[in-house]
Amino acid sequence: MSQLEAAQEHLAKALKRLEDALTRRLSAPPPGSDADYQRAFAQIVAERDELARECDRLNAALSEMQREHDRLREVTGQVSRRLDGSIAEIDRLLEG
Q1: Exposed/middle/buried for 41, CB within 10 Å: 0-12, 13-18, 19+?
Q2: DSSP conformational letter for 28
Q3: DSSP label of 29
């Protein structure tokens, strides 16, 4: 598993833990009036939405890093093949 895949998995697990914590928090309403509960609920929903946006942003950044990593791997492969070809040509010339 690459570091990027590990980071994406870690992010997904963290988001799942957060969702589970929010579910537990919402399942037991706080003591107080209905208005207090509605305010607390709205705050939790706002926090969840903000964290979801942050998760989306981080996931997009990780995906971009993965694409860049793939492009760099392709370029590295091309350079490696060219170097191997050049070395083979130099060896051929030296033997000739």
Answers
A1: middle
A2: S
A3: P
The whole-angstrom separation of Cα 12 and Cα 54 is: 12
Distance CA(92)–CA(71), nearest Å, equals 32
pLDDT tens digits for range 44-84: 888 888 888 888 888 888 888 889 989 999 999 999 999 99
Residue 22's pLDDT band (boundaries 50, 70, 90)?
confident
CA–chain centroid gap for 58, Å, is 5
Cβ distance 66 to 4 under 8 Å? yes
User: Rounded to an integer, what distance in angstroms lies between the CA atom of residue 47 and that of residue 53?
Assistant: 10
What is the tally of helices (H) and strands (E) in the chain? 2, 0
Q: Where do the structural domains in the chain lie, given as residue ranges?
A: 3-95
| Model confidence pTM above 0.70 | no
